[in-house]
Amino acid sequence: MRQSELVFTARVEKVGASTLPELPASNATVVVAIDRVFKAPDVLQMLSGRSITIVTRDKASALRPGESALFLARGLMYGRSIAVLEVGRESDVDPQEMTRHAAEEGEAAHDDLIRARIAAADVVVTGKVMSVTPIQEVDPLTVSEHTPMWAVARIQVTVVEKGIPAVNEVDVAYPQSRDVVWYRAPKFSVGQEGVWILRRQALRGLEREALTALDPLDFHPPDAVQRIRRLIGGSDTTNR
After folding, report:
1. Which site in 53, 140, 182, 194 is 20 to 30 Å from 159, CA atoms measured?
2. pLDDT-derived band of residue 142, with 50, 70 and 90 as boundaries?
3. Any bridge partners for residue 29, and if so which?
4. Distance from first CA to last CA of the chain, Å, rounded?
């Protein structure tokens, strides 16, 4: 399931057919009507009831019109319809069990992403924002919509989860801009509490480096503290 972008149940409509003119029908293509989606990218969540093309791992003749199955797939082609590449298939699936399993796999995959952020981090701290100070002077003649508008949030550290021991405060640089380039980066405000996963890097447009939390997975609210500690505990990078 983790190797698949899409997981869904569907009913076979046509064998050796295609819904996309760019993808010629062959003995490996099958058109199916999607019944229920268990996993899909956000832009493809509304696939239920639609007909799409699956390029099967073997000959499509192994399937019969009217037959239903669970398909695991990766995206292949997008146009007036979509075509996907089959990764796996199951014929006998309990929908409730699959919903539970998909949720568990989704959470495990999310943990893997957080664990990777932690492994690459220089510092992980729990704390509270005490002040926010803009640090990027803006020239009206050169400023653009992509200018980061850097600011520094000073964090009063409660616990050093990884990295520099016995530190009381850390400064975290972040872009205040909500432009398309920067909108996903977490924004901070005085009084905000949580866990910061920080890495040191150069600040675009400034001749300096700073600890940053630029990925949505680099900041977590207080109720995620135990989860982050569990993920750190399973890593060899821990330095508490």
Report:
1. 182
2. low
3. 55
4. 34
